[in-house]
Amino acid sequence: MAKRSLTSLSAADLQGKRVLVRVDFNVPLDESGAISDDTRIRAALPTITDLTAKGARVILAAHFGRPKGEVNEAMRLTPVAARLSELLGKPVVKTESCIGPDAEAKVAAMADGDVVLLENVRFFADEEKNETEFARKLAALAEVYVNDAFGAAHRAHASTEGVTEFLTPNVAGHLMEKELQYLQGAIDEPKRPLAAIVGGSKVSSKIGVLESLIDKCDKVLIGGGMIFTFYKARGLAVGKSLVEEDKLELARELEAKAAAKGVQLLLPTDVVLADAFSPDANTLTTSVTEIPDGWMGLDIGPDSLKAFQAALADCKTVIWNGPMGVFEFDKFAAGTNGVAHTLAELSAQGCCTIIGGGDSVAAVEKVGVAEKMSHISTGGGASLELLEGKVLPGVAALDDA
Q1: Exposure b/e, 109-130, CB count within 10 A at least 16 = b
Q2: What does the CA dihedral 187, 189, 193, 195 come to, rounded to 10 degrees?
Q3: Is residue 381 annotated as a catalytic residue, yes or no?
Q4: Looking at the chain, which terminus has fewer C-beta neighbours within 10 angstroms, N or C?
Q5: What is the rounded CA–CA span in Å between residue 299 and residue 179?
Q6: Is residue 90 within a helix (H) or strand (E), and if so which, with residue range?
Q7: Is 100 a catalytic residue?
Q8: Which residue in 3, 40, 54, 240 is the catalytic one?
C-alpha cells in the first residue's frame, strides 16, 4: 500500500505547525566521543530543510545507542545537535529529556522555521515497549508527524508507531519515501532481469531474504561465509570454513526451490582460502571441490567473480546485501571490491542498483563507488525485512496515499 508523504503537504499546511519528525541519528562515535560518520544526519537534511522552508516548527525525535531505558550520559545527543547545527547553519536547541517540562518549554518558545532536537527517546523504557501514555506525551509536543527513520521502521516503538494514534496527518519523510520507492519497487515492480547478490557469514540471518528473493528474482548470486553451508550440504569438504551444521537441509531445500522455479542460483566455483583468520594469513586459491583440510574460505575466487559479472551483465535491477568475503582484510577483499565496481559500471549503463544496508554499504564506500549506485539504503534490519516481504510497523502506521 502506497503511503502519504511529505511531498503532499504545502507551506499552507505546515506554516506555524509543530511537526514531530522521527529521524535516524544513530551515528558512530570515535574514542574521543566525536561523530566518525555523519551520513545518517546528512540523509535527514532534505526533510528538515523542506519543513523549515515551509515555516514549520521542527521537533526531532531520535534514539542513540542502547541505553536500556535509563539515562546514560555517554548516549546523550549533544554531539548530534552540534553537528546538525553546523550542517543547517542555524542553532539547534536540544532538550534535557524527550518529554516533560524542559521539552515543553523549549517547544513553546519556538518560532516558525526553528529546529529542536529532543533528547534520546530510549532513555525511557516505555519507548521500546510502545507504551501508550509515553507515546501520548511525546505526541502532545506536536500537531503533525513525519517518519524519516527508515532504519528504525521495523520497530513498533512509541516514536515510530505509537505517536501516530495522537497526530494527524502522519506522513513519510523524503528519505523514507525514497527507501520505499527503491526497495519496495525493486520487489513489487522491478525492471527485469532482476538479480540479487546475497552475502554475509551466516545462512541463518538471511533465510527469510533468500526464500523471498528466490520467489521474486531471475538470478540469485550467493557469496560470503554462508556458501560453505551449501557446499557441505552437497557433500563437499570445506576444511575449517564456517558451516552451520543445523542449516544443511535448508541449503538443499533452497537449491531445490530455485531449480523448481527456474531461478538461476549461482554459487562460487573457486574460493580464496586462508590458513588462519588474520589479515596476514597465508592464502591459497582453489576450486570449491578441492578445499584442503586446515584451510578456511575467506573470499570468492577470480573465476567466480567473472561468472558473477557475466550473470549480472544483462540485468536491469540488482539488489546487493552482504559482502562476498572478509573485505576488511585486503587479501580477502577482491570479490567484494569486484562486485562493487561491477555494479558501478552497470549503474552507468542504466541498471537500477540498490545497496541493501549493512556491510555492503561500508564496502561500496570503502571502494569509493557509493555515489555511482542508484540507491544506498540507510537501514540494515529494515531493508532485510522489507526484502523479505514483511510489513514494517513504522511504515504501516503512516496514512495511506
Answers
A1: ebeebbbbbbbbbbbbebbbeb
A2: -10
A3: yes
A4: N
A5: 30
A6: none
A7: no
A8: 40
Q: Phi/psi zone of residue 257: left (φ > 0), alpha (ψ -120 to 50 degrees), beta?
A: alpha
262 included as an active-site residue: no
DSSP symbols for 104-142: HHHHHT--TT-EEE---GGGSHHHHHT-HHHHHHHHTT-
Question: Which of 117, 114, 141, 143 has its CA nearest to residue 51?
Answer: 114
| Residue 193: cis peptide before it, omega within 30 degrees of 0 | yes
Catalytic residue among 55, 185, 381, 389: 381
Question: CA-to-CA distance for 20 and 232, rounded, in angstroms?
Answer: 51
Can you spell out the DSSP letters for 149-191?
A: -GGGTTS--TTTTGGGGT-S-EEE-HHHHHHIIIIIHHHHSPP
Write the pLDDT tens digit of every residue in 105-157: 999 999 999 999 999 999 999 999 999 999 999 999 999 999 999 999 999 99
Return d(Cα 114, Cα 108) in angstroms, integer: 11
* Tens-digit pLDDT profile for residues 230-251: 999 999 999 999 999 999 999 9
Question: Per the structure block, which three cell numbers stand in for 321?
Answer: 546485501
Taking alpha carbons only, the member of 269, 233, 268, 264 closest to residue 250 is 233
Pick the catalytic residue from 4, 17, 129, 202: 202
Q: Angle, nearest 10°, between helix axes 380-387 and 207-216? A: 40
Which pLDDT belongs to residue 357? 67
Q: What pLDDT, on a 0 to 100 scale, did the predictor assign at position 1?
A: 64
The Cβ of residue 60 has, within 10 Å, a number of other Cβ atoms equal to 25
Q: Are strands 170-172 and 264-266 parallel, antiparallel or unpaired?
A: unpaired
Cα(266)–Cα(308) distance, integer angstroms: 8
CA atoms of 182 and 374, how far apart (whole Å)? 9
Q: What is the pLDDT of residues 160-190, one digit of tens each?
A: 999 999 999 999 999 999 999 998 888 889 9
Going by C-alpha positions, the residue among 196, 203, 211, 67 that lies closest to residue 126 is 67
Catalytic position from the list 199, 356, 358, 394? 358
C-alpha angle 16-42-180 in degrees, rounded to nearest 5: 85
Strand partners, 172: 5, 147
Task: Give the DSSP H or E segment for 102.
Answer: helix 101-108
Q: What is the pLDDT of residue 33?
A: 87
Active site residue 358: yes
The DSSP symbol for 5 reads B
